Each structure stands twice: as structure tokens, then as C-alpha cells.
Amino acid sequence: MGYLPNILITGTPGTGKTTTSEMAAEATGLTHVNVGDLVKAKSLHEGLDTEYDSYILDEDKLIDEMEDMMRPGGKIVDFHTCEIFPERWFDLVIVLRTDNGVLYPRLESRGYNAKKINENMECEIMQVVLEEARESYEEQIVIELESNSIDQMEENVSRIKAWMENWIANSSSKK
Ligand code: DAT
């Protein structure tokens, strides 16, 4: 079997990374890597930030832990930040975007505290993750996709699948 691509799905919390990644993994046969879960399961952090109720990432430990799993390709990596990963890992970087009026209730229904909701809303409004992605990866591999509705999510999954099939066809026709 030939080499498979690695895809990063990033975006502000609540934009649909995990749901989209699960659906895309099922549609493509690639393996979903939920980085937040990995950080918790393997304690790749330096404890909890009580103010924001989130883990303080140990980036070196995380990258070491992921290096071997990324090497053979075939992963859909799901995380809310993207600048910490080596650029060489990814063939496609998807940044999910959600409108304010849709994102706010999603964050509220997660039971986030007001500070965490506000921080995430500001992150989305300021396009923090999109800018990070554009600074960290080649412009042509960064794709921004809207994730407001189930229809859009399904369309995004179809696009990822089509991209992957095209990528595989192109990589096997080279040399
Ligand atoms: P993330 O992994 O980015 O934090 P998620 O996949 O956990 O986001 O989704 C958060 C919630 O919002 C979850 O209840 C599913 C819902 N959701 C996400 N994307 C959606 C979309 N495009 N349309 C409708 N609901 C969506």
C-alpha cells in the first residue's frame, strides 16, 4: 500500500473539529487522532489552568508522543491550535469557522464558564487559528471551511474525501 496523507483539522473550540474528524475518518478510512484526549490520557501536560479550566500543554512531550504515529501517514489530527506541530507532518490543513450567533450557544451548552466562552468567542472573531495556520503552513494547503450547519459539515466531509482520493491518485502517478 502506498503512503497516505496526514490531515490537520483545526479551529476554535466548538467549530466542529471532533465531529467532522470522526465523520471524515469514517468516510476516508483514515485514523482520527483527538489530541485533547491524547494529552489527558498520557498526561502530556503540566497540570490544569484553573482560571480557564484547561490543561497547560507540554508541547515537547506531545510532539515526541505523536512523531511515530504521524510518520506512516493516514491520520486526521484534531486540535484547537496548529502552530505547535512540525510543518512537515501535514499535507492538508482545514480551519473550521463558525458564525458568532451559532458558536455562542454551542459553547454555552458545553458548560464552559463565562471567561472561557468569551475567550473562545474572541478567538473566533479575531480569526486567531486561521492566522496561525497561514503563518505555520504553506498557503496552498490551508483551507478555511464554514461549519455552521449539519449540511455544511457533510459537505466538508465530502470535500475532504474528494481531496484525499485526488491526493492518492496524484501521489501514485508521480515517479
Ligand atoms: P470541536 O471539536 O471543534 O470543539 P465539536 O465537534 O465537539 O467541536 O462540536 C461541538 C458541538 O457543536 C457538538 O455538539 C456538535 C455541534 N456541531 C459542530 N459542528 C456543527 C455543524 N457544522 N453543524 C451543526 N452542529 C455542529
UniProtKB/TrEMBL annotation:
Residues 34-57 are annotated as: NMPbind. It catalyses: AMP + ATP = 2 ADP; ATP + H2O = ADP + phosphate + H(+). One of its GO terms (cellular component) is cytoplasm. GO terms for molecular function: AMP kinase activity; ATP binding; ATP hydrolysis activity. SUPFAM superfamilies: P-loop containing nucleoside triphosphate hydrolases. Signal peptide: none annotated. It is found in: Cytoplasm; Nucleus. InterPro entries: Adenyl_kinase_AK6 (IPR020618), P-loop_NTPase (IPR027417). It is an enzyme of class 2 (transferase). Belongs to the adenylate kinase family. AK6 subfamily. This is Adenylate kinase isoenzyme 6 homolog. It comes from Linnemannia exigua.
